[in-house]
């Protein structure tokens, strides 16, 4: 038998292409005769356009068309609220192009199409726009106060949505508590900063009435649905292709963005292909942001540190629109209790409009904030009760025998109560402690302190609901001639390695090498029953769909081979690209032969023999070539729909040294223990975790989108907005636990976002520990830039 | 309930597009940066190239590449024998480009790719080719004689294949006969002359390794299979699209032709799209021909005219190669006994190589020749026994109670014995007699003769095995928002009206208007399990697959609607684009709503409400959004595989007047009685029959490809090769019989080729009848050009 591929460190099928520069992104598409677009964007946060003149822009040679909202006809509608929820009292979504009112700097006002991008940009600058500038308040806490300037005039206190969730009896819990700890924490606004910014190209075929859109999206099927309905075209007349995509991280889920409407619209209008690729400056003020939340969290505990209840009230900055509804806030609110038993929870949030770039999920999606809140609070509680930070967590863990563990009435994004499916939290913590060698670390820390060096240890335990439904599907087809398997799903990959992971799953079932499994995704013309790549759901939902399809393909191959070999299908083994009778390797056929013979047409030409196989003998020998209800060839489609989310978890720790002079933080060690159930490919898992930690490092140390009092983003470039380079990311020690999920056949859980979630708290906790001898106040927000450290030291009246 | 669409004269969905010039043929494709090809072709029939110099061609500005066989690498192989058969002793197929030897005028020797067609053609003419010219014999009868020049040196007597088939005991039948009649008949070579000649365009995507080929083919799936194996590409990496195709008629089934290899090859080699469209001159010497057969047929009969046995020995001219094997000859041999009981049959044929364009099936495929042979013989037998031509046929018909009627050991193209499934031959003849009013015609004829006018009545009865397997499939998908149904099959249409016929079948099941059923075919990227459009099989095989799929779609819609309406699926009716509970039209939902709600994602944006439906409520209300084994949406694929051929039939008659001075023939009446089982759309059936008759008129009157003694085609243009115009085709009186086929759910039989089959005999029979008072010899060949009539008159020593 072949070696099992599931669980192996299989080299990635996509790497050869991507590493050698043969990736194909939207900007690489060779669209002959393509025109180029550029947007004119609002220069003010909240304003009313008093004068909009495109005359000069239209007059520029090489300009084909300048569109304002008035030109969009039926498309001049606000975009759909993607995820409605009854708690959204005042849903507001954007127009493709602004009407009189603008709501954030960077909002699209006009779209120019020209012979090249240079002309388009020049023309966009020639558009005259005058505004009445309206007052703004960019801080969500102030924006929610009475009298604050309103983003949308008819939305009181800028409150878009308000939700209260109660699980258990929090009042009783707080009444019974020996101790209550309260803190307020804040996480700041960031951006996903993908390598590739947004991108759209479109071609309209006037003859066939077909619209093809290439889009750097995480959700081609969703975008196809949106375009199909917005353009009043049948689904089959709209094809959306996500070619290689240079990072997604959430903001590339369908919004739809102005470009996703305008580029196809212009292509249809002008009967020419049109392309637009966002530049980095635009990306900062156009692609959605995430993160700003302000949590007021309280824990009610016994004197032993057992948490009886949790109250969390938070503000969520949703920016100027709320296209995703309460997604981010809802996720934060449902993950606020972390891995802890906490039987009574009261969580409430307000989503607050601010005149800034709209907020939608970004890797972690509310979890980094929730994790920061609960874990900061746990640290505080530990400190107040004089209990070790590790120990207090251990005392509150849900134990393995308590799974499935439900938090009644805390409703997750799938509409179902939070139900954690499995976990060994205590084991994970123990593994972390062992890896860290806590005694040695404490000794090192004392030694350092004696030398005046500020060494600190931080940790964070997180859980993550992953693998949301409703479903994904997979199609597998075995090819004649080569015997290779083609796999299609409704997803798209932005670096996650689907081409390898799915190949491993299929390879195990049908006995081929992973490199002989070709994965094609991200094309609604190939497969279009599915959702999208987000919410750490691909491996769980698509992976299991691929598995179920592979099992089905295996059964069909075995049956076909059994017919050919005159054997019992139960006796057929598949390995090394062949099907053979168990116990013998000589009585076998290749999968290529199986694929060929399973189609009664047998249209595959045999080049060696230079003949095509005639179908007639089949008819003669078996009667009808294809009996009623049977299908030709080896081709199967199957679907997987999870019963509810599956919960991954992990615990990270860092040993840091803070330089009180430069305020620099040196991460000396970074240890991850994580458990995403059974791993398809540990190498890919490690890549995901490491990438997540790196992105988390950005949030912990550097990344803060800074709006000024006029609502202008001050650091809208990589000159001013810092992201970690490889040099800033420490070596990450990884420890895998594999506690299978009982919810799906492969026993897997999602891991895409995991690494990002705990990093803010890990660093905050470590810095707090490092600086504690100096009497600095607790760390209550990230990022911890040098100036933030400086502030902490200053507050402690340390002479810096 | 909606009106039943099956059987109605529904206006064709495709007509608006095609009639207003919005058809899209290969030459219409807007392939930017496309290069153009031209072939250098052999000027001699049989020769050996002594000198081939492409230097001057390559040097011409604008030329990108000139290919000869030596440049083709792995593709420099002979093309597959598409339909092997053990009787083919000497299968010979062509190279994409000739090696040293050339085998017919027009054989491709080199392929030029240049900036435009003009340059390519100029360059092709600059290629220097010298030949040693070898002796030829283009007449198949002489070519089969000892000592005749050989087309392929190692094929004795030029005999490619020899088959003997015996059904019953012919020797005993002939021994027992009162009377034996013997005749020799000949049908000449013709060409299908489609409006659009052959055409291929190709684009190679070097990044994805995908080859897209647009080809005016009847068999995109077959061509995809050929290209996939020839180019060593996975099937999923080759997409073949047959856009609108301007007539097929058989020669556009996959061969593959040189262009179908060279155009993709050059596109891949040059990394540029390449296009080639055959011009009419090339079409005459490149696209395959059909028809030349010489039959020696004998009938053994009782004195009452009951035929006891049949012997037929015929030569089939296969041209220079035999890519389709014995297809044409086999069809002729199995249909030689027509509608007659004839219990003993001995049929044998030789397929003879001649240094001419290869022969493959052309509308009728051997049947016109077989029909000409048996029906001429029946006329002769009637004359010799003094029995009326109608009466002698009636005496030999298989009667309705004899079906299914098998001719043992006469093996049809599906590998199964000829088994006629149903028919009312006597009713058909009676219907013809009634329509003609034979007494009146006889009176008119006598009157005319008295006036010196030569009036004659001819008739021909034919049967046609149609609807060959192995199978076809159909996919139906119901679209959200519009509720329209998309139908995909593996076929392609060249004017047959599939977009309407399939729509009618689907409309009946799911209760929508035919115009709301969108049929997309001819694209392996859309649906690629199937065979092709040929052999009058589309309606039977695909039509029934569409029906089965529509029944399946109906069941899914009813179930989904029942869930929505909280009703029993058995109580759901579908009509007018809605599903409702029987007995009420108010309790209903639109099919668009059914389509939307049957996908648990419900990704369809509701533009009116400007929201997307959330999936969460589904999960909440029903548990898993997609239960195990269920599929999202309304999408079904089903297949139909016929048990064996189904036999259509008909009888045509014509009243003609021959002008013995001008030798012109005036067709005064033309009556068709035909029975293709249940008709999907009588208007389309009539179009098919009328078109077939028109094409048959060409064969009867005009069309004869005339090779000179050097193997040069003398009439390779529409100046010299005449096809009937609308002015030459008489009004056709049509009478429909509908005897359902018991073999398939819709009870249908094929009709695509029917009209063509009997026309030669009808005209020959009528002319013979018209001229009989003059003592002309029997008519033994078609076409009956004026000079052929002149010959007949001359042989009768009529002073002309």
UniProtKB/TrEMBL annotation, chains A, B:
Keywords: Molybdenum, Oxidoreductase. Its EC number is 1.2.5.3. InterPro entries: Ald_Oxase/Xan_DH_a/b, Ald_Oxase/Xan_DH_a/b_sf, Ald_Oxase/xanthine_DH-like, AldOxase/xan_DH_MoCoBD1, AldOxase/xan_DH_MoCoBD2, AldOxase/xan_DH_Mopterin-bd_sf. It comes from the Bacteria. Pfam families: Ald_Xan_dh_C, MoCoBD_1, MoCoBD_2. Residues 20-135 form the Aldehyde oxidase/xanthine dehydrogenase a/b hammerhead domain. SMART domains: Ald_Xan_dh_C. One of its GO terms (molecular function) is carbon-monoxide oxygenase activity. It is an enzyme of class 1 (oxidoreductase). NCBIfam families: CODH_aero_grp5 (NF040766). This is Aerobic carbon-monoxide dehydrogenase large subunit. It comes from Pseudonocardia benzenivorans. The lineage of its organism: Bacteria, Bacillati, Actinomycetota, Actinomycetes, Pseudonocardiales. The gene is cutA.
């Amino acid at each position: 038998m072949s070696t099992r591929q599931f669980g192996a460190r299989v080299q990635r099928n996509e790497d050869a292409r991507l590493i050698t520069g043969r990736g194909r992104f939207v900007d690489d598409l060779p669209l002959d005769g393509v025109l180029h677009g550029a947007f004119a964007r609002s220069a003010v946060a909240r304003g009313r356009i008093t004068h909009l003149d495109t005359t000069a822009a239209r007059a520029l040679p090489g300009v084909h068309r300048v569109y304002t909202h008035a030109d969009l006809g039926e498309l001049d509608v606000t975009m759909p609220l993607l995820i409605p929820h009854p708690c959204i009292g005042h849903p507001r979504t954007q127009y493709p192009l602004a009407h009189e009112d603008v709501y954030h700097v960077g909002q699209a006002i006009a779209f120019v199409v020209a012979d090249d991008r240079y002309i388009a940009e020049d023309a966009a600058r020639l558009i005259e726009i005058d505004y009445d500038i309206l007052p703004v308040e960019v801080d969500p806490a102030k924006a929610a106060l009475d009298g604050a300037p309103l983003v949308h005039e008819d939305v009181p206190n800028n409150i878009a949505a308000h939700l209260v969730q109660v699980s258990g009896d929090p009042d009783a819990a707080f009444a019974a508590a020996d101790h209550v700890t309260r803190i307020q924490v804040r996480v700041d606004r960031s951006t996903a900063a993908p390598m590739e910014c947004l991108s759209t190209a479109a071609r309209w075929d006037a003859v066939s009435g077909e619209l093809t859109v290439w889009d750097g999206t995480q959700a081609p099927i969703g975008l196809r649905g949106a375009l199909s309905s917005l353009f009043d075209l049948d689904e089959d007349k709209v094809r959306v292709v996500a070619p290689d995509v240079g990072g997604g991280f959430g903001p590339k889920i369908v919004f739809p963005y102005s470009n996703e409407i305008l580029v196809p619209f212009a292509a249809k209008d002008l009967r020419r292909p049109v392309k637009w690729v966002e530049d980095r400056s635009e990306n900062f003020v156009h692609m959605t942001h995430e993160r700003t939340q302000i949590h007021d969290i309280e824990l009610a505990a016994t004197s032993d540190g057992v948490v009886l209840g949790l109250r969390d009230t938070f503000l969520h900055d949703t920016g100027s629109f709320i296209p995703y509804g309460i997604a981010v806030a809802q996720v934060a609110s449902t993950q606020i209790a972390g891995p802890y038993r906490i039987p009574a929870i009261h969580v409430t949030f307000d989503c607050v409009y601010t005149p800034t770039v709209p907020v939608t999920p970004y890797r972690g999606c509310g979890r980094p904030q929730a994790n920061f809140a609960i874990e900061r609070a746990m640290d505080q509680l530990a400190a107040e009760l004089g209990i070790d930070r590790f120990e207090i967590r251990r005392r509150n863990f849900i134990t393995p025998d308590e799974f499935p563990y439900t938090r009644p009435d805390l409703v997750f994004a799938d509409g179902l109560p939070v139900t954690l499916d499995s976990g060994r939290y205590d084991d994970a913590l123990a593994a972390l402690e062992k890896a860290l060698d806590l005694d040695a670390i404490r000794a090192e820390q004392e030694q350092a302190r004696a030398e005046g060096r500020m060494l600190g240890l931080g940790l964070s335990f997180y859980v993550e609901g992953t693998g949301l439904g409703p479903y994904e599907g997979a199609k597998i087809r075995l090819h004649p001639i080569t015997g290779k398997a083609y796999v299609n799903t409704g997803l798209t990959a932005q670096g996650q390695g689907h081409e390898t992971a799915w190949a491993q799953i299929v390879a195990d079932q049908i006995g081929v090498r992973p490199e002989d499994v070709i994965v094609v995704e991200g094309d609604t013309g190939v497969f279009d029953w599915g959702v999208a790549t987000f919410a750490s759901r691909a491996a769980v939902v698509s992976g299991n769909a691929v598995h179920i399809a592979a099992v089905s393909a295996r059964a069909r191959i075995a049956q076909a081979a059994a017919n050919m070999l005159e054997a019992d299908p139960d006796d057929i083994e598949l390995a090394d690209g062949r099907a053979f009778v168990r116990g013998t390797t000589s009585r076998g056929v290749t999968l290529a032969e199986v694929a060929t013979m399973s189609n009664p047409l047998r249209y595959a030409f045999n080049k060696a023999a230079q003949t095509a196989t005639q179908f007639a003998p089949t008819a003669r020998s078996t009667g009808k070539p294809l009996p009623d209800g049977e299908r030709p060839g080896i081709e199967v489609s199957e679907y997987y729909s999870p019963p509810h989310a599956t919960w991954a978890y992990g615990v990270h720790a860092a040993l840091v040294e803070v330089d009180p002079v430069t305020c620099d933080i040196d991460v000396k060690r970074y240890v991850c223990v994580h458990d995403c159930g059974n791993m398809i490919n540990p190498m890919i898992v490690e890549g995901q975790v490491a990438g997540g930690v790196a992105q988390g490092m950005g949030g912990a140390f550097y990344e803060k989108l800074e709006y000024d009092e006029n609502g202008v983003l001050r650091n809208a470039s990589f000159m001013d907005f810092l992201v970690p380079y490889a040099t800033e990311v420490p070596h990450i020690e990884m420890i895998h636990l594999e506690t299978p999920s009982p919810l799906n056949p492969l026993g897997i859980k999602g891991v895409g976002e995991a690494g990002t979630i705990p990093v803010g708290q890990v660093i905050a906790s470590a810095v707090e520990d490092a600086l504690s001898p100096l009497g600095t106040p607790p760390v209550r927000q990230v990022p911890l830039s040098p100036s933030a450290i400086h502030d902490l030291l200053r507050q402690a009246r340390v002479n810096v």
